[in-house]
Structures are given as C-alpha cells and as structure tokens.
Amino acid sequence: MKGSFTYRLRYEKNHDARYISHLDFIRLMSRALRRTALPVTYTEGFNPHPVMTVAMPISVGVTSECEYIDIGFDSRLPEGEIAQRFNHTLPSGIAVTGVVLLGTDACSFNAITSARYLVKTEMKSDTAPDLDTFLGLSEIIVAKKSKSAVREVDIKKDIYALKLLSHEGRFADFAVETPAGGSYNLKPELVFAAMEKYLPGFGIAFMQVHRLSLLAQGKALM
Amino acid sequence: MFSVMDKILMSVQKPVCYTGGELGMIKKDPAGTDIRFAFCFPDSYEVGMSHLGMKILYHLLNERPDTYCERVFAPWPDMEERMRQHDIALFSLETKTAVSKFDIVGFTLQYELSYSNLVNMLDLAGISLTACERKEGEPFVCAGGPCAYNPEPLAEIADFFVLGEGEQVIGEVLDKYLEWKRGGGSRKAFLESIAQLDGIYVPSFYDVTYNDDNTIAAFTPNNPHAKPKITKRIMRDFKGSYFPQSLIVPYGETVHDRVTLEIFRGCIRGCRFCQAGYVYRPVREKSAHELVELAARLIAATGYEEISLCSLSTSDFTALSELTEGLLQEVAQKRVNLSLPSLRIDNFSMELMQRVQTVRKSGLTFAPEAGTQRLRDVINKGVTEQDLLDSADLVFRGGWNNIKLYFMIGLPTETMADVAAIGALAHKVRDAYFAIPREMRKNSVNISVSASTFVPKPFTPFQWEAQDDIATILEKQKAARASMKSRQISFSWHDAKTSYLEGVFARGDRRLSQVLLAAHKNGCKFDGWHEFFNFDMWLKSFEQCGVSPEFYNQRKRSYDEVLPWDHIDIGVSREFLRSESERAYSADATPNCRTACVGCGASVFGGGVCFEG
C-alpha cells in the first residue's frame, strides 16, 4: 500500500445486514468510503478501486460483532473521525465500533486462527444434546465442502470449544469455537450437522449464528 | 424466538430483496401521514430498483408531509411460494405493511409481459383483482408508465390510469384523495373527482361496443365526469424539474446499479417503429449546468462508482460538449466512471470515448435496425450503409474490435432479400476491420449480430400493421442466420413466442382483461423471464376465454378502424401517424424535429423543441 496509512476498522453486521453477501458487502463498503469523502488510497490502473481488505468473509445470514477491514488512506486521520464519518453514512445494521492505525508490527489477517460464535437454535425436540457423548467420540466425520469438492473429514480436533449456554424447551444457545482463517476454516453449522448425525433424536429446526470474535492464537486482532 | 420472516429469508435466493432498510430509504411514521401510497413494480427487485421513473416518483411523493410512499416488488417465485405457505400477504419494504392497507396502490407498466405479475401481486396482497369487485375500504389501484398509453388490456383491473409523465398529476390526484377522504364519499365519487383532471383515465366510466367482426364500434363515456378524450400530461418545463437529491442504494447488485442522469425526454428522430419516439414528444432538455451539479450531488450522497446518461439518443443533446466536459471533471475527481449509451459514432464521440474509462475496448453497439437502405427508409432510420461503415472504420482505428449490431426482423414490407441483407451488412462491417492497416488491428474481430422481433405498437405509424406470425419469424431468423458465414460474426435472436404475446397485449382491448385473469389462474407470471414463460398456458387461457390472439397481433387494421387507444391523446395526431405510415410505404424519409417541423401535433403542449427556434 504505497505511501498510505492503513487503518483497521472493527465493525458489526447485525439485523437485516446479515443477508448481505460478501461481494455485495465489498461494494457497499467501497460506496460508503466514497460517501465519507475521506482521502482513501485508490489502486492504480484502468479501473481504480479503494485499497481495502476484509478479514474473513462471513456467510449470508450470520451476524457478527467483530468483523475487520483494513483500509488505506493517503493521509493520517484521527481515528474517531474515521469511525464517525462511516457511522454517519452506513446503512442500518452495519456500524464501525473501533479504528486503529496499523503499525509495522500489526497482525495480518493471515494470522487469524479461530473464531468464537454464539449459536441460537430451535431444536426439533425438547431434549438438549448430550455434548459429553458427542465430544467423547473417537472421530467426528462430516461432509465438508471445499471450492472444488465435497470430502469426508474428521472434525473432532477442530471443535476447540462447544458449550451449552442455556436451554428452555426447544430453544438452546451454544458457544462454539472453531478454526477460522484463509488456510483452514470450519463453519459452526458443520458442528451442528455432525451432532445431528451422531446424536440420535437431536435435530435442528433453525439456527442463528452470531460471530463473537476473530482470534489470532487466542488474541483479538486489535 | 425466531420470526417466520427470519426463517423464510434464510431459505430464499436473495433475501436482500425483501428487507428494505437500504441507504436512502425514506423513513416516516405512517401514523403521522394521511395517505399511504404503495408504489408497485411488477417485476423483481433488481429490475424495479433500476427504474428511473420509480426513483423520481418515490422521492417526489415522499416530499409531501401528508404522504408516505413505500416500495413493493414482485417476490421471486421462491419467496412467493413461502409467503403463500405461511399466509404472508404482499408487503411494502419500508414498513412491512400489507399492501391491502394502503390508500392507493400504483403500478408502473414498463412492458406488456409484466401484466401477469401485476395481477399476481394484487392476488398476493389479497386485493380484489377487478375494479368492479373492489369494495369500500380496499385501496384504489392505478397504473401508469409507457404501456399505459394503451391501458385497455388492464381496463377491468385498474381503477384508474395516469397518462404521461406523473410528476404533476399524481400530486393533483393526492389532493383530490385527501378532499375525498375527509368528505367521506363513495369510491365512485373519488373516481369522478379525478376523472376531471387532465391525464387521468377511469376505464369504468366508458362503454365499449363492438361490431360483428369484433372491431370496436364505439367508445362512449357513461359518466358525466368522464372526458371523451384524455390528454397525456408532460412536464412542459423540464429544465429545473424535480429530481431527487439522493437515491436509494440497494444492498445487492441491480440491473442498472449506478447514478442515472436523465438528460432529456423525447426524441427528435421519429423512427417509425419506436413508440417512445412519439409518446414522449416533444423533446425537452435539462441544462448541462444543472445536470453536472446534480451528478456531483448524487455521487456524494450515494457513493456510486458510475454515472450513466439516460435519454433516447445521447448525441442529440444540444449541450453535449458542455455536459461531458463538466462530467469528466467531476468523475476524475471522484474516481467514478462515466457511461455514455446511445452515442452516435463520429469524431467528437470517438474522442470523448477515448477519454472515458468505462467504454472498454471490447464492445460498441450500432443499431442499423434493417439490412437494406430501402427498409431503413421505410422505418425512417436516418442511417446509410456508408454512415455505418464510416463509423465502423473509426471504431476499429480507435482500437475497438468488438461491435454489436442490432436489427429487427418482421418490419413492415420486409422481404427475404431484406433479411439476407442483414448478413451482407455484417460482412461489410467485418471487411471494414480488415481494410484498416494491419498494424492498427487487434488480434481478432468479433461482430455480434442481434435480431429482435418487431412488435407493432400503439401511437406509431405502424399501429395498423400486422405482426409476422411465429412461423414467418422463425423462417426469417433462419434466413438471417444463414446469411452469416464468417467465424467472426455471431448471431443471436429473440424468442418469437414472447414477441407474439407482447404483440397481443400491446394493441389489445379491454376484452383481454379476462384473458389476463385466466392466465393468472393458470399460473402465468414472470413472462419476461424465459425460465417462467409458459406459452402453451397462455394459448390455453386465450382459448378458455374464447379470445383469438391473432385478432390483435396478426391482423392488419384499416385506417378508419376505431383503435382501442383512440380516446387517448398524446399530442401527436392520428392524421400525422397515418401520413407517416403512407410515407413508409413509399420509403420517404421524414426530417427530424430540429431539421424541420413536420407538424406532428406535439406543439400543443407549448414547450420543448417545438419552441426552440
């Protein structure tokens, strides 16, 4: 990012904004940037676009309180002003909750290793799943889609954390931590698919996934 | 804990089409307004949100403190299925209010193949489908837009129509509505009060009688408030006319996802097949200065990365050079792209396009419309073969190597020789590429020829013509295809069946309302989308109603036949259209409005190009 100052923005994506796909979100942010009238750095070339990188694409329907985007500006700016100008022009559901100027020692998005989620579920029965049995299995095989193929993989080692937070009738909330990042990623939805497979009588009627944090070796990105 | 809507939205293809809440959406407290207006677009969100007229009217209506205008689109069939499954009635995006709770439900009619969606949306809303069934307490259903110039196919469905440009007249309608609402009269009383406004047509106030041959015998008002002739409305002073200061910026990508600058209305050209060229007369321009200012304001408010000029023929804008200079400065500063559609190719435009980044070196489009000079003269397309080849030469020398050529098949007086000439012309354009010096050529050249099917439209000199039948169109498409032998020329064409249906409704009368209702019952919707278009079901619907589609699309009318739209006055006179029809048969060209006024009748509006000199 030539001659520019890179700022890391933390933002939340809630309510109806959860239905915005990753590609649409990139377009939305670049339009929001133009509306802020901040001195953003543009790429060179025929079709210049703002210099920005989103940490981790998020699935359609998933809400989050800790998404990150790095944006290059041509000059130094007060962090508070960046946040304020964005929040003035972002559509409802998306809000910037933190801004820092990145130093040379900043942790890159490539360093992201895991993510924590709050998963609210509506189950098909009143019985909460037996997590001890599930986590005690010797292997947990699910069909995992990659870009090119669907493969059977063992995700037992990938369930960093799985806890039942609350349970009332057919509704249960869970805390989940799974690998995240460019090299290996496991969506929490797959953990629940595995529970449906291995725990007789357990089924999910509907679930709402909420990302709580993105972590690099257990540490927050800013 | 989870709402039904949460669950539904997670299961449809494009949830962002149903959430509302986009940047620029108008928020009001419905309880604080007197009139709730549902602006309905009878197609998908992506198509509807691209429509300029809706943007103008949405914001204009919402300027009124007494009115809340909200948007409604046709849910895609996956969404519709779930809505019906869960008994969710059609709702507005702004406040998720059921459409049946609105005071006025207004549809814009952009193309005939959206009519079945209109009926389906009323059905999804739980509103009575026909005007005569609609009870006190139900909304008034109205329609406007270009297809409303022949409102008759929807005559039994809509309570009233708005003819022409809606900016002024819609406000007058709302004023009358408030008066009526406060006074507490019958539905009929409201319709009577607006029937007196210029540009408002209440179809139930007219009786139609028919001759033995099914043509119309007479069209007579049956209500003392109904005018014998309804004149369209226009914005006489287009300079300074209303345009929103901001726009809604959709979450997802729409068909036209950019700032659209409408530089003028109408067209000076008078191509005889083109309905827009007659119904929007006279030509009225905005000033270059106000357009540049507007562009700056809209880019700042929306953050869009592209501005596109919108008109029927960009090159005919009198201050084009001043406008593009101003816009080029603006776009360079804001790093946005400028797109210049409908530009005639000459030295000025070539230089301009070299300076505009978006015109990628890949594709430029020409519309000769017909293969022979004779047929181009018939349709009054003032383009010669030499014009086209000179333009192609300029374009190839400028570094472009992809050219699109648009033609129409099925034009009046067309012979198989005219059709074969499409290929011959495409080959000449290709040869123009090989005529430029080798070092100026790119690696390859590609000529994409596209042929649509001509559909005769009301208020054109061809309104009396018969449309080619499907077999003839298929034969001509085949012949056109056979006339192209080069690898560098590709050919695509329109589906003849959709054009057939378009032709029926374009010149239909009010007996088609029942066919439309039958087609809806039979499941027809999204007819403009080939994955949903069910031609056989349409034919069945015609049969069920005992209506012959050929009567409407494949029958040549005599000049003295009463046409279903004869009670509508667009300014351009029937006599003028007839003389243009006769000139077409003798292949006589008619000059454009700026070369010479030919007295079409549009000067009655007292503005625009008619009074430029």
Radius of gyration of chain B: 24 Å
Tell how many strands the DSSP assignment of chain B holds: 19
Structure summary, number of beta strands of chain A: 11
**CATH secondary-structure class of the largest domain in chain A:** Alpha Beta
Structural write-up:
The complex is a heterodimer of chains A (222) and B (613). With 222 residues, chain A is of the alpha+beta class. Chain A folds into two domains: 5-106, Pseudouridine synthase I, catalytic domain, N-terminal subdomain (Alpha-Beta Plaits, 2-Layer Sandwich); 111-217, Alpha-Beta Plaits (2-Layer Sandwich). Chain A contains four helices and eleven strands; from the N terminus they run E-H-E-E-H-E-E-H-E-E-E-E-H-E-E. In chain A, the strands form two sheets. In chain A, strands 1, 2, 3, 4, 5, 8, 9, 10 and 11 form a nine-stranded mixed sheet that branches. A two-stranded antiparallel sheet of chain A has the order 6-7. In chain A, helix 1 (22-36) crosses helix 2 (79-89). The longest helix of chain A has 15 residues, at 22-36. The two termini of chain A are 20 Å apart. Among the domains of chain B are: 4-231, Rossmann fold (3-Layer(aba) Sandwich), CATH 3.40.50.280; 240-359 and 573-613, Transcription Regulator spoIIAA (2-Layer Sandwich). The termini of chain B are far apart. The model of chain B has no long low-confidence stretch (mean pLDDT 95).
Could you give a short description of this structure?
The complex is a heterodimer of chains A (222) and B (613). Chain A contains four helices and eleven strands.
